[in-house]
Amino acid sequence: xxxxxxxxxxxxxxxxxxxxxxxxxxxxxxxxxxxxxxxxxxxxxxxxxxxxxxxxxxxxxxxxxxxxxxxxxxxxxxxxxxxxxxxxxxxxxxxxxxxxxxxxxxxxxxxxxxxxxxxxxxxxxxxxxxxxxxxxxxxxxxxxxxxxxxxxxxxxxxxxxxxxxxxxxxxxxxxxxxxxxxxxxxxxxxxxxxxxxxxxxxxxxxxxxxxxxxxxxxxxxxxxxxxxxxxxxxxxxxxxxxxxxxxxxxxxxxxxxxxxxxxxxxxxxxxxxxxxxxxxxxxxxxxxxxxxxxxxxxxxxxxxx
Length: 305
Hints:
Number of helices: 7
Low-confidence stretches: none
Distance between the termini: 41 Å
Shape: globular
Order of helices and strands: EEEEHEEEEHHHEEEHEHH
Mean pLDDT: 87
């Protein structure tokens, strides 16, 4: 069975065949490139062969019920920048585990098996400790999603780097890592920046567990939102009652458009904000975009035709 849902205010249509991706089709008023052509609902760490009992070779898994109501909930959650809330996973039955192959280059392992905390251990040490309390992060078990767990652990990683002296890691990690390695390069260590960083972060995390310093790192940071898999979108109504859509998926530009125009705004107008991450400075980029959208509907009367 195939499901379809057209968002009432955005000239965007979602379609789903019950499998791992929801397809996105945009109308004529939407600027090219404003949206990806799909989003993924699979559990990134979980593989269960024949979970759906339909003979599929792919063992990927999602927990979204195959109903129109659940499908529309998923689409609205994605469209409005929320965590997808339909078909939540039972982590006592299907525990979540992950290794930090990104910023800390595999130095950490994370898991959530149900209960009150996310646990962590230095890689391959099997020394699990409860480090992030769900309640302290404003989460309760029925609200958990795997993407939130991943983003929360990413936020902890960045804050842990800063606690270890890597200044600015949470704002511009690549620059902060390069600056730190150049100041602390080991005379007999690996020559490249990534190699130096990997040697150091593995040692730092293991030392943190051995010395008990990890007790100072509980509940560090917050949820780190990855815009590529969790785009930003906002809608605003101007003084004339016209509804405007604002969207950013991590590309150099954020976009603005109005449904029902039959064609996009001229390029100079629908390319709304250039390089939001740079322009937002030290402010959270998503909060900054919300503020820009508020201001835009009040100061751009020439587009309200």
